[in-house]
Amino acid sequence: MEIAFKRQGLSLEVINPDEIPEDATFIDLSNNNFLSIPPETFISKTKVFKFSIANNILTDLSFLRCFEALVSLDISSNQLEIDELLQIRHIYIIFLNAQKNSFVDKLKDNPLTLIIILKRAWIINGTFVTDYARQIAKQYKKTLEFGESILNARREKLSEHNTASTTQAAKHFLIGTSFKFQEPGKFITPSGRYVKDLANRPQIEKLKYLHQNYPIDVPTGTFSDYFAIILGILSYQWMNVPISTIPRLLSRGFWGTISSEISDLEEWRLWVLLYHLSQQMCNGLAIENELWQALKVINYIKTGVQPTIGSIPRLIVAAFLFRAMDPSELQDCKDIIIYQNLRQKCNFTSLDESLETIHKEILGNLPVPDKHPEKGETIAVIHPLTKKWINCKASYISNGRIFAQLPTIILHLPLNCLFWDGRGVWRQMDTVDKGIRPKTPTARPKSAIVPRLSEQARNAFITASKTDQNAIASTIANDFHVPISLVDTSRTRIAPSDSSKEIKKVVLPVFQTMARPEPVKTTAPQPKTMPRDFRGIVDPYCPKTPIVHRKTPSRPTNQVIQNVVNVCLGHELRNGTHLRKFHAKVYNELTKKVKYVWINEDEISPADVDNLCALYRSHIQKKMDVIHDIF
Description:
It comes from Trichomonas vaginalis (strain ATCC PRA-98 / G3). This is Leucine Rich Repeat family protein. InterPro entries: LRR_dom_sf (IPR032675). By secondary structure, the chain is α/β, with parallel strands linked by helices. It folds into 5 domains: 4-181, Ribonuclease Inhibitor (Leucine-rich repeat, LRR (right-handed beta-alpha superhelix), Alpha-Beta Horseshoe), CATH 3.80.10; 210-359, no CATH class; 365-428, SH3 type barrels (Roll); 451-504, no CATH class; 559-620. Helix content is 33%, strand content 15%. The chain has 22 helices and 17 strands. Strands 1-2-3-4-5-6-7 form a 7-stranded mixed beta sheet.
């Protein structure tokens, strides 16, 4: 049973811990004027699993460190930056609402940054974080763009001389450069422990938990009704098309009964609905089962990996979108372009939206020619998006169709549109559209240097050996000097080549003035001799020594300093002041092991130095007198 403690809308600035019941499970402090809350306020509230402090002016979240797992946390509409998110990074959270904070707008173009920082949150701002998104976030974490997004979104900007590199600064931001001292122990509720156990499991386990605890009621329908809703969800997640587009085409009546509920669902609820409908897909006809298996919804629910553009699952969705939307609205959709390319090559003309028609277009058998390429052979095809020729390998062949993996898409073609061109490659029987094909420079043919002749003179040139010599001479223009080989047919019976001596005698003088001018030299000529003031080979110029920034030691957040057992003095800094070195006892919360490390005073902040000194005082208080002049 939920026991709520609500103090919302009272313009409170402080909260008394004694007012909160010890067995409270839900604390609501929204719509107040809290700027900060003391860290020890909720230490004794060990049964809390839902917390809301939205619509305040918070700039600190240290009071939430005592929690290890929460089902729901609402920190929206505050004055938080990403610096404060590190204070809740250790908490396992199912529903995290952090909207309307300053860092949200700063990270609008880098949504993966929020996934990296809040790596233990399931649902961030209504969006379910899939396993595939976490894999992409790990790769994005190694990029320079991630470091720049961190530096630009921080509350306190770091100047260039304070960090050696952008990547290093981002790493230190996540790991931390200050020590974590012994803090009040974190607690976890039974429901929170279950959330923690599911955090590192596949996303299908998380969806089962959400489906069990937050179910969605869907009326009883047929295979076509459920299939239409699934296609609508996939078109929204894969192609950013409204969910209602395909259901209105396939099952208008069923969609009308649930449209008001589904249209307002958050993104994570769509995942739960997709999982629910996948469990309700009963055995249908053979065509229906083949379409359902080809859509590979179960694999998508398990991994969150979207199919490649041009693959069969996306072509099935594109086939229905092509019939449900106006062509002008689909000009920029790559899946529709690839589907139209398939329709053109296979001569499909039907616009019937039945499952049988879609099955015939995407999965049906096509004619298989006697000779066709095999798997792994090279084929030359026209890229459906760029309209340029490209060589690729045949991935697999099935039902008279060939599938080729291009750099970013999968090309789907019928086998009968390929032929063997005799040059070691299978080629697509098609030409590039002249309006789209880029203009490429062509070499100037040798015959272009021949002087322009009249039509009669050109004919006389070709048939010179079969006509009278006087007739030949009379057909040539008066201003053109006739080579002797054209008049004297006894020497040759074929047209002279461009390299013949007679042509060279005529062509070179005539076109000498038409030759391309030599390029103008833009650089001054280099002297061939050494200058007079040369005094031998001198030493090369020594570049300036680059500034090397010392790397700030990183402090993992899972290590806690429990004690300081010794302090010694190092080298002298200035005015008789020596550098202090602390021998600290460090406890690893993950491995449950203890080790001793030396910490230099110049590696940590003054506040951490004072904390280390206080620990050492308490350590030696019962053993010996305090050593003077060391603190």
